[in-house]
Amino acid sequence: MSRIIYCHYLKKEADGLDFQLYPGELGKRIFNEISKPAWQEWLKKQTMLINENKLNMMNPEHRKQIESEMIKFLFEGEEVVIDGYKPQH
C-alpha cells in the first residue's frame, strides 16, 4: 500500500517512502515531504558526490557535507555541484 504525499522536491503529489530512511528530525521531514522518485534522484547525486570527492561515510565531516548538500537539493531547490561533473544539456 503506497502513501501519497505532497513532495517538496517535485512540487506535486507522489509516492511517499515506505519507511524513514534517515535518522532524526531531518529523517522525519524527508519521510513526510520527499517522494520515492525524489529520493532516487538524490541517491544518484549522493553517489556522484561521494565518488567525485572521495568522501567517506564514516567521517563525521564528510557526513555533514553530504547532509547539507541533501538539504539544499531536496528542500531548497539547489542543484548539487560536483567538481569535474558537467550535467548533459
TrEMBL record:
InterPro entries: Fe_traffick_prot_YggX, Fe_traffick_prot_YggX_sf. One of its GO terms (biological process) is cellular response to oxidative stress. SUPFAM superfamilies: YggX-like. One of its GO terms (cellular component) is cytosol. Pfam families: Iron_traffic (PF04362). The keyword Iron applies. Keywords: Iron. GO terms for molecular function: iron ion binding. HAMAP family: Fe_traffic_YggX (MF_00686). Belongs to the Fe(2+)-trafficking protein family. Could be a mediator in iron transactions between iron acquisition and iron-requiring processes, such as synthesis and/or repair of Fe-S clusters in biosynthetic enzymes. Necessary to maintain high levels of aconitase under oxidative stress. This is Probable Fe(2+)-trafficking protein. It comes from Gilliamella apicola.
